[in-house]
Every structure is written in C-alpha cells, then in structure tokens.
Amino acid sequence: DQQVKQNSPSLSVQEGRISILNCDYTNSMFDYFLWYKKYPAEGPTFLISISSIKDKNEDGRFTVFLNKSAKHLSLHIVPSQPGDSAVYFCAALATSGTYKYIFGTGTRLKVLA
Amino acid sequence: EAGVVQSPRYKIIEKKQPVAFWCNPISGHNTLYWYRQNLGQGPELLIRYENEEAVDDSQLPKDRFSAERLKGVDSTLKIQPAELGDSAVYLCASSRSGSHNEQFFGPGTRLTVL
C-alpha cells in the first residue's frame, strides 16, 4: 500500500508566483516529514522538515505546513524561481516501533520564466 | 565537505549476471542506507546500517541481494543473479546517527538489465 502519496505528478508555475506541492499520508505513526528536491542524474537533496508536533516550519522561501487531522502536508515556495524546477519528493519517517522512511512518488515542478 | 560517492554511475548487464555497487558515505556519518528507485517512483529503502550492523533489511530481497559494510564506512550492494526487473537507480545515502532528518544522497547507479 502507498503510505505516502503525491497525487499531482506535475505542476507548472510562473516565475515569482507561489508553488504549492501536496502530500498525503495514511500512517499516524509518522513523527517527521521531509521534503527533498531532485535534479536529473543527481540524488535527492534535503530541503526542509517538520516534526509531527508542529504545524509549520519556514526556511527562507520554503515553508512546510502539516495538518495532522487531515494527514496532509504541503510545501510552499515563494517566490518561485526557474532554478526551483525539479522533482520534489515528500518523505515520512517513523522512529518508534518499526522504523519507516517512506518516500512519495514525486511531483515535477516547472517554473516558467 | 565531500558528498556521498557512488560507483559506477551506470551499469549495463545481461540477466543472470552478477553486479555490485559501491558507496562511500560522508565522513562521520554512521548511518548508511541503500535505496532502489524505479522509474516514476520514489526511492524505496532496501537496507539501513548503523556502523557495520544492518539494523533494518526487511525490504532487501535476500534470495539475490546482499550488502555489507565491513568496517562501518564503505558499503557494497550486490545482486546475483540479476533479473530484468532489477533495472532501476540504486541510491546510497548517509546521515549522522540519531538524526531524524536529512539524509545525504549520492548520485546513484543506474542499472540496466538486458
């Protein structure tokens, strides 16, 4: 079963506007959530994370929001830049009980100049 | 700081042949991970090491896959024999022990099994 889902395979946004990438999860045992960015022929690069006890974490142009009741998180990029064009993966981590580190299927973001 | 190094970057083999991938993690990172990423999917964890101990290998297909990290630094992942369905990108990542957050990924090895 897909415990971490990114239902939008792709997203196009105009430069300077906001990009919103979404992620849903099913397992309430996850206690950390992370976003990675991946360029072609490179490994994923960590962007930002959030603990399950928080609902928002901000780092420069990147903000992650967590809605635990809806089992939903989102990554906001403001303002979007052409260099942000990449595939974005959300990941969920469970550290108590059975260790789990599960990635979503990714969303390809294209920022148009 | 040097990143995670993986080799080879690309490998093409015929089915039933063996293949091995090598990973050198970031210095000081005690935790090492091997992932497999199929086309259009996210990385899937195969095995996780804390130093030289494999602490989670539940997703490793043990009939044909093996891994080792003998001195708690470099690691190798082996497939023998390879099958067509093993074609994927194999990613190595490392992190500091106890880190609940970021993993540092290498560029991956793209395996094609013909």
Short summary:
The complex is a heterodimer of chains A (113) and B (114). In chain A, 0% of the residues lie in helices and 56% in strands. By secondary structure, chain A is an all-beta fold.
Could you characterize what this model shows?
Chain A is mainly β. Chain A has a single domain, classed as Immunoglobulins (Immunoglobulin-like). Chain A is built from no helices and 11 strands. Chain A is globular and about 45 Å long. In chain A, 34% of the residues are buried. Chain B is mostly beta strands and 114 residues long. Chain B has a single domain (5-102), classed as Immunoglobulin-like. Chain B has strands at 5-7, 10-13, 19-24, 31-37, 44-50, 53-56, 65-68, 75-79, 88-95, 104-105, 109-113. In chain B, strands 2, 4, 5, 6, 9, 10 and 11 form a 7-stranded mixed beta sheet that branches. Chain B has a 4-stranded antiparallel beta sheet with strand order 1-3-8-7, with no helix packed on it. Chain B is globular and about 40 Å long. The termini of chain B are far apart. Chain A binds chain B through residues 4, 9, 31-32, 34, 36, 41-46, 49, 51, 89, 91, 93, 95, 99, 101-106, and chain B through 4, 33, 40-45, 48, 55-56, 91, 93, 100-108.
Helix-strand layout with pairing:
The complex is a heterodimer of chains A (113) and B (114).
Chain A: E1 4-5, E2 10-14, E3 19-25, E4 32-38, E5 45-51, E6 56-59, E7 62-67, E8 72-77, E9 86-94, E10 100-103, E11 107-112
Chain B: E1 5-7, E2 10-13, E3 19-24, E4 31-37, E5 44-50, E6 53-56, E7 65-68, E8 75-79, E9 88-95, E10 104-105, E11 109-113
